[in-house]
Amino acid sequence: MGDTVNSEGAQKRSFFKGLKAEFTKIVWPDKDTVTKQTIAVVSAAIALGLIIAIIDLIVKFGLSFIL
User: Fold this and answer.
1) Which of 17, 22, 23, 38 is spaced 20 to 30 A from 54 at the CA atom?
2) What's the rounded Cα separation, in Å, for the pair 4 and 47?
3) Model confidence at 10, in pLDDT bands (50, 70, 90)?
4) Which three-class secondary structure string do you get for the chain?
């Protein structure tokens, strides 16, 4: 129990060799892509913040009007 059987063609590779092989498969984005995506994320965050702030002001005004 607990014994493992390796197939003929399978060879054990060290963790770091496998890690290096996976890192070679990574396609890193270029500077233009990173810039465009950064602008999109910052714009979306600002827009969402403004929407939340406007909703908060409406609710605050509505509650002060009712109470």
Assistant:
1) 38
2) 56
3) very low
4) CCCCCCCCCCCCCCHHHHHHHHHHCCCCCCHHHHHHHHHHHHHHHHHHHHHHHHHHHHHHHHHHHHC
Q: The dihedral of CA 37, 43, 47, 50: what is its sign?
A: positive
- Token pair 């290096």 in the structure block, residue: 20
Enter the pTM of the model: 0.61
The Cα angle at residue 28 between residues 26 and 32, in degrees rounded to 5:
165
Mean predicted confidence (pLDDT) in 20-46: 96
Tokens 């999109």 sit at which residue?
A: 40
